[in-house]
Design goal:
This protein is mostly helical. It is built from 16 helices and four strands. The strands form two sheets. Strands 1-2 form a two-stranded antiparallel sheet. Helix 4 packs parallel to helix 15 and helix 4 packs antiparallel against helix 16.
Length: 396
């Protein structure tokens, strides 16, 4: 079975660590232009740096997996599904406090400014309603990575209905969601391209990643409870996960090779995003029943630490990195620091520790205490669920 640490499936947390690593690498590369070449062996990892935005899609896959596990467990065990109150409470305490803190802090320090009160109220209001990604004027404001939080919350609103369909007809529901995602992306390609990128980043354009995660969750629970003999085929599942990683690497290389094409990466996204979702499915499902050595490699301490602080790191890494650049830290003499190779490397030695330190402090000093308080509140409130209803997966 899967490797469990602290009540969490460790390999899924390992994937979460990989997802945040890709996203941070991508944004820091955008700022520093530091090439990614492994010294002495002359191995280029530049495709990972320049296509690290795929890490956001991996987050959506993980979210779909985590959310469906308790529903699949309840359905296959013939038990009541988690209540909507419990679902909403867990999502609220995980997402909203850190999100609101980031918005307030970035405005307070002047990272985000407004010409007048009405503009600021509109921007903040849309962000608090998680609809800011619908409008071009607010899609990238306050902090660029926040667009995906709107997609995530919008998915939460439809998830209870999707869960009902999924536990009854997982394959048909998956095919339907993949069809919706690809239909949406083709429409984006054929429609006016002025909002091409923004439209591709709406919920329908990513629904196949959530679907792939949900399918992996249902298959995981079904195998563990209904087909335990399959779980013993560890080397087959290990091969499946490795094949998924190889496929993901090849897809990222293919995306990187087309970086000079017109409207890159939008056209590539239309053609290949579902293939990336299937690669995530292979990686995730295979890792759950892989050999223990492979699971421990995937769930190594570095990735588990990144997974633990991933939410705050996601919210803060880009604003902090841009703020350091604005402050000339580390210092650079010319107007454009990108001509200074020493600055490019030095920037990473400053930006990475700062981002990790701030994110860890916010995670353990703010996020985790609120989550513990929210958990106590749920357990003491009406409709609390006993130990038999607990899952091995905590919040996404």
């Amino acid at each position: 079975m899967e490797l469990v640490r602290g009540g969490r499936i460790a390999t899924i947390d390992g994937l979460r660590g990989i997802a945040i690593l890709l996203v941070v690498w991508f944004h820091f590369w955008q700022i520093s232009w530091q090439s990614a070449v492994v010294p002495f062996v002359n191995l280029s990892l530049q495709p990972l740096a320049e296509t690290g935005f795929i890490g956001v899609a991996l987050f959506f896959f993980i979210s779909g997996f985590v959310l469906l596990v308790p529903y699949a467990q309840a359905h296959l065990a013939g038990a009541p599904a988690p209540t909507l109150r419990r679902f909403a409470s867990r999502r609220f305490f995980k997402i909203v406090p850190s999100y609101v803190l980031a918005i307030a802090a970035l405005i307070a320090i002047g990272y985000q400014t407004y010409p007048n009160l009405a503009t600021g109220a509109k921007d903040v209001g849309f962000h608090l309603l998680f609809v800011h990604n619908w409008f071009a004027s607010t899609n990238g404001s306050i902090a660029g990575p926040m667009w995906s939080l709107a997609v995530e919350i919008q998915f939460y609103l439809i998830f209870p209905l999707l869960a009902l369909a999924f536990v009854r007809r997982p394959i048909i529901t998956t095919i339907a969601l993949f069809a919706i995602a690809n239909g949406w992306r083709v429409w984006c390609m054929l429609a006016d391209h002025y909002y091409y990128e923004q439209r591709l980043a709406q919920l329908p354009g990513y629904i196949d990643f959530f679907a792939a995660g949900m399918l992996a969750a249902f298959a995981y629970v079904a195998i563990a409870t209904r087909r335990p003999q399959l779980a013993h085929r560890r080397w087959a599942f290990t091969a499946l996960s490795i094949a998924g990683f190889v496929a993901l690497w090849l897809l990222m290389v293919n995306c990187y090779d087309h970086r000079f094409d017109k409207e890159w990466p939008q056209l590539w996204v239309v053609e290949w995003r579902s293939a990336v979702a299937l690669a995530c499915l292979a990686i995730g499902l295979g890792s759950l029943f892989a050999v223990r050595g492979y699971q421990r490699v995937l769930a190594n301490p570095v990735l588990l630490f990144l997974a633990a602080i991933s939410y705050n790191l996601y919210l803060w890494h880009q604003p902090l990195a841009l703020f350091l650049l604005k402050l000339h830290l580390p210092p650079y003499a010319s107007a454009d620091p990108h001509g200074d190779t020493r600055w490019m490397l030095a920037y990473w030695f400053v930006a990475v520790p700062v981002a990790l330190a701030v994110s860890a402090a916010l995670t353990y000093g703010f996020e985790q205490p609120i989550l513990r308080w929210g958990k106590r509140r749920r357990n003491l409130g009406p409709g609390r669920e006993g130990p038999a209803r607990q899952t091995t997966i905590l919040d996404a």
